């Protein structure tokens, strides 16, 4: 538990629901990670043309009707699917849960771009006559939309909101959920992150203009963090939502526990719009370890944020060397090499892919590393093939974002 935290405030993960480009539940996702199976595929979007992306294939109609899909958003649909799956996984007696005591805390990179772009595109066909503008525009584009759609879909009357934290948002959602439980603002938290980013041409165009949009003749090899020939980000959609509860409540109902939130931290670079800052990232990792009451040599797996950009990967590796040194004791891996960058969902989704290691003691690899960049040569980096571990008791999850926002979550086996 977090150092100094009262026993009654211990927070645990009791449910996981996810949608990823290579799996629509934790078992499928984990199987793909261990098998080296990528979910990146060829993709085409207006104005940008042919590119690659991580595309989800979950059953949209499992928890929604077609009318709901037409009225709502892709991010909302991802969130509703993940939230329902997480509740099922938790085994909680949902019918008898006080819905006013459930909080929804969803990390997002951005929201509303997809809907605005689509509506402007359609309005062009009516000579920009705004009488044809969708009356659904406002509820679709408000920042709280994904969390609000979950609230509507599940009849939750407790607090709901989104946390805008760029690509650190998935971790930020988890942190917010844990904090609200400790404050007594809710008894159950649905926390994590979602992304619909592949449906907006703007994000592809912007990364392309930066020279940061990945390309490769083989789509499944386009996302290749740490490789000397990496050339940018693969944009992906997805989501991951956790059921968080106080340990005492989970224990009382005999819940299966995926792990305990042992520590977390967030800070800011305050140095550049897009370029990362290794010193600030290292400080964020160190603060999370301090709050967890852990030393660096007690961490078994570090899930890296590495996006496949030259400076991003190098700066993170520099930060990790500051904290962990050159000891091979800790293993380092990366899930973006399999699914691309799921933006607001990245922190939550990538953490989920590692949690089964508490049971199977295997660290999944980073794939597509043909020639390791010497600047990224961490001593414990797991490349191309999974690594069996003697033990996995502590997992540290990095997630960083534009405008210099950094987040770290640490989970321990219980």
Describe it.
This protein has 14 helices and 14 strands. It is of the alpha/beta class and 414 residues long. The chain has 2 domains: 9-252, 3-Layer(aba) Sandwich (Peroxisomal Thiolase, Chain A, domain 1), CATH 3.40.47.10; 262-412, Thiolase/Chalcone synthase (Peroxisomal Thiolase, Chain A, domain 1, 3-Layer(aba) Sandwich), CATH 3.40.47. The strands form 3 sheets. The chain has a 10-stranded mixed beta sheet with strand order 5-4-6-7-1-8-14-13-9-10, with helices on both faces. It has a two-stranded antiparallel sheet with strand order 2-3. It has a two-stranded antiparallel sheet with strand order 11-12. A hairpin with a 3-residue loop joins strand 2 (40-45) and strand 3 (49-54). Helix 7 (169-183) crosses helix 13.
Draw up the topology in text.
Layout: E1 11-19, H1 26-35, E2 40-45, E3 49-54, H2 66-71, H3 74-90, E4 102-108, H4 113-124, H5 137-141, H6 145-154, E5 160-164, H7 169-183, E6 188-195, H8 201-210, E7 238-246, H9 247-252, E8 259-268, H10 278-292, E9 301-303, H11 310-324, E10 331-333, H12 336-339, H13 346-354, H14 357-360, E11 362-363, E12 387-388, E13 394-401, E14 405-412
Parallel strand pairs: 4-5, 4-6, 9-10, 9-13
Antiparallel strand pairs: 1-7, 1-8, 2-3, 6-7, 8-14, 11-12, 13-14
Summarize it.
It contains 14 helices and 14 strands. With 414 residues, the chain is of the alpha/beta class.
């Amino acid at each position: 538990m977090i150092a100094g935290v009262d026993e009654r405030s211990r927070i645990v993960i009791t449910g996981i629901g996810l949608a990823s480009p290579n799996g629509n539940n934790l078992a499928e996702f984990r199987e793909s990670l261990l098998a080296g199976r990528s979910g990146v595929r060829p993709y085409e979007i207006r104005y940008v043309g042919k590119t690659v992306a991580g595309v989800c294939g979950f059953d949209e109609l499992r928890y929604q009707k077609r009318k709901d899909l037409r009225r709502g958003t892709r991010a909302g649909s991802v969130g509703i699917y993940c939230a329902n799956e997480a509740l099922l996984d938790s085994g909680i007696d949902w019918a008898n849960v006080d819905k006013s005591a459930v909080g929804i805390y969803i990390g997002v990179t951005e929201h509303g771009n997809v809907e605005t772009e689509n509506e402007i595109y359609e309005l062009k066909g009516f000579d920009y006559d705004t009488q044809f503008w969708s009356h659904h525009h406002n509820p679709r584009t408000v920042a709280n939309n994904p969390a609000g759609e979950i609230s509507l879909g599940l009849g939750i009357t407790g607090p709901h909101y989104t946390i805008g934290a760029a690509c650190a948002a998935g971790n930020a959602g988890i942190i917010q959920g844990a904090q609200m439980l400790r404050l007594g603002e809710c008894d159950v938290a649905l926390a994590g992150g979602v992304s619909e980013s592949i449906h907006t041409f703007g994000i592809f165009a912007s990364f392309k203009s930066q020279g940061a949009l990945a390309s490769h003749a083989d789509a499944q090899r386009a996302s290749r963090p740490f490789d000397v020939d990496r050339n940018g980000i693969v944009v992906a959609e997805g989501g991951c939502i956790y059921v968080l509860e106080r340990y005492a409540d989970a224990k009382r109902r005999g819940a299966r526990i995926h792990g305990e939130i042992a520590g977390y931290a967030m800070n800011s670079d305050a140095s550049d719009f897009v370029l990362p800052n290794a010193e600030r990232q290292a400080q964020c990792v160190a603060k999370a370890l301090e709050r967890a009451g852990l030393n660096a040599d007690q961490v078994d797996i570090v899930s890296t944020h590495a996006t496949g950009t030259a400076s991003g990967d190098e700066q993170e590796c520099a930060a990790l060397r500051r904290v962990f040194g050159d000891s091979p004791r800790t293993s380092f891996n990366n899930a973006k090499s399999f699914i691309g960058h799921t933006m607001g969902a990245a922190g939550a989704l990538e953490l989920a892919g590692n949690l089964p290691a508490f049971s199977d003691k295997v660290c999944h690899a980073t794939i597509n590393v043909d020639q390791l960049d010497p600047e990224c040569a961490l001593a414990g980096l797991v490349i191309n093939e999974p690594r069996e571990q003697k033990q996995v008791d502590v997992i540290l999850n990095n997630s960083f974002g534009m405008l210099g926002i950094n987040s770290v979550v640490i989970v321990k086996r219980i």
